[in-house]
Write a structure and sequence with these properties.
Elements: E1 2-6, H1 12-15, E2 16-20, E3 30-39, H2 42-49, E4 65-73, E5 85-88, E6 91-92, H3 98-101, E7 112-113, E8 125-129, E9 133-135, H4 142-146, H5 149-161, E10 170-173, H6 179-191, E11 194-199, H7 202-208, E12 214-217, H8 223-230, E13 236-241, H9 248-253, E14 255-263, H10 277-280, E15 285-288, H11 294-305, E16 313-318, H12 322-330, E17 337-341
Parallel strand pairs: 10-11, 10-13, 11-12, 13-14, 14-15, 16-17
Antiparallel strand pairs: 1-2, 3-4, 3-8, 3-17, 4-5, 5-9, 6-7
This protein binds NADP nicotinamide-adenine-dinucleotide phosphate and zinc ion.
NADP nicotinamide-adenine-dinucleotide phosphate (NAP) binds at residues 41-43, 150-151, 154, 175, 177-181, 199-200, 204, 242-243, 246, 264-268, 290-291, 329, 332.
Length: 342
């Protein structure tokens, strides 16, 4: 089968290779999903460029967001899955530790991500645990279904789970043109909160206005200044942060007294230079919010299936144009998701 491998760190054109490998067969408790669509995330870019937490063993295959059809089931897996259209929850966990029992799969000490710790979906087929399968809602095509798992499940934890945003509150969403940012903005808007969103160009701002009450072009005004001006100096109740060291202090300074900042990523780097007094003196809280749990994935998938939330698909590409997808994400030339069709 064809697969897209990362063979070294570097630019997309050098580091990515289309290869032919043997089609994998599922072991006990596993299934083989024949991939119809797989969405890229910033994580795919990190895997190619190198990341402090990356082990750098090559070749490797990313691709966390998978939708497809079950082509084969291993021993012990339910044969009813055969030929079913599915979406894959990307988290794999032990299933019986204290965190798994609580339903918090991403807290499990054995937690792994398909497409990061295990071979991902950038191939014609991928083997995944049966436990990760979710029926693809009939109302969603494969491309839209593949755009849901990582971004919407993470955004759901940020806004609803860890963030506990309420309709009467104000929320600031960073990078609202990106995968996680746009999902978070849609969820905050759907909840009825007043939404402030940052982006970097007029073209992106036009699209972001569909869900944001106020759009901030941070290339013109630092976002904390803009937020304070827009809220009569009060600030917002919640900030959804994923940009990292470039924006942390401004994001903290955008918070109202007692406000919460939820964090799922650090695209620009993870070592911010911050004033910790700006946290405790104002009763502010910073909460970690990595990808949501299985129940949160189901909740958000069903809202997308009902059309309440709508993944934004920037472009759909064949697997052999994967470098173009990586390049577009790295250059911040996308709005929403890049989806590949192996
Ligand atoms: N922990 C988890 O489970 C988890 C899950 C999902 C994502 N994440 C993390 O969340 C972050 C966002 O992921 P994503 O897939 O949504 O990325 P993405 O689609 O590439 O979006 C990132 C957005 O951030 C904005 N941005 C602002 N400053 C930036 C900078 N210095 N470099 C790059 N982008 C910048 C860009 O929009 P503008 O140009 O308009 O500002 C861009 O659209 C990543 O760090 C990712 O690893 C973590
Ligand atoms: Zn566990």
């Amino acid at each position: 089968m064809r697969a897209a491998h990362i063979t070294q760190y570097g630019d997309p054109e050098e580091a990515l290779a289309l290869v032919h490998v043997e089609r994998p067969e599922p072991g006990p408790g596993e299934v083989r999903v024949d991939v119809e669509a797989v969405a890229l995330n910033h994580l795919d870019v990190f895997a190619r460029k190198g990341h402090p937490e990356d082990e750098g063993a090559f070749p490797k295959r990313s691709g966390c967001d998978i939708a497809g059809v079950v082509g084969s089931v291993g021993d012990g897996a339910d044969t009813d899955w055969l030929d079913e259209a599915v979406v894959v929850y990307p988290g794999v966990s032990c299933g019986d530790c204290e965190f798994c029992e609580r339903g918090e799969q991403t807290m499990c000490h054995e937690y792994e991500i398909i497409g990061e710790d295990r071979p991902g979906g950038l191939a014609e087929s991928v083997v995944v645990p049966e436990a990760c399968l979710e029926q693809k809602p009939d109302s969603l095509n494969f491309v839209t279904a593949a755009a849901v798992p990582v971004t919407f499940t993470t955004a759901w934890r940020m806004i609803v789970g860890a963030g506990q945003l309420r309709p009467a509150e104000k929320a600031l969403i960073l990078g609202a043109s990106g995968g996680v940012g746009n999902a978070a903005l849609q969820i905050a808007e759907r909840l009825g909160a007043t939404t402030y969103a940052t982006t970097s160009s007029e073209r992106k701002a036009d699209r972001v206005r569909e869900w944001a009450d106020e759009v901030i072009d941070y290339t013109e005004t630092p976002h904390d200044e803009a937020v304070l001006a827009l809220t009569d100096g009060r600030g917002v109740d919640l900030v959804a942060e994923h940009v990292g060291e470039e924006t942390w202090q401004e994001s903290i300074d955008s918070l109202a007294m007692g406000g919460r900042m939820v964090v799922c990523g650090a695209t620009s780097g993870a070592d911010p230079d911050i004033d910790i007094r700006s946290i405790y003196q104002r009763h502010r809280q910073i909460r970690g919010a990595p990808m949501g749990n299985r129940a949160q994935f189901r909740d958000v998938l069903s809202l997308v299936a009902r059309g309440e939330l709508e993944p934004q698909i920037d472009r759909v590409l064949p697997l052999d144009r994967i470098a173009e997808g990586h390049r577009a994400i790295e250059d911040r030339a996308v709005f929403g998701k890049v989806v590949l069709r192996p």
